[in-house]
Please model this.
Amino acid sequence: MAFDTFTDFLTMGKHGAYVWSVYGFSFLALLILIWNTLSRRNKVRQKLRRRFLRD
Model:
């Protein structure tokens, strides 16, 4: 393994704060994109459902 201890893994040679913050930001961005996509999909479905029920 590249790291001897779990603490070494977390600190990553004093770059841990940068590395883990980038992982956190990426994870947050993916969650926001997924939420936004699902939200828009539901809005389109509701709009189409209303349009087809009217006719």
Remarks:
- Residues 17 and 46 are 43 Å apart (CA to CA).
- The first helix runs from residue 6 to 11.
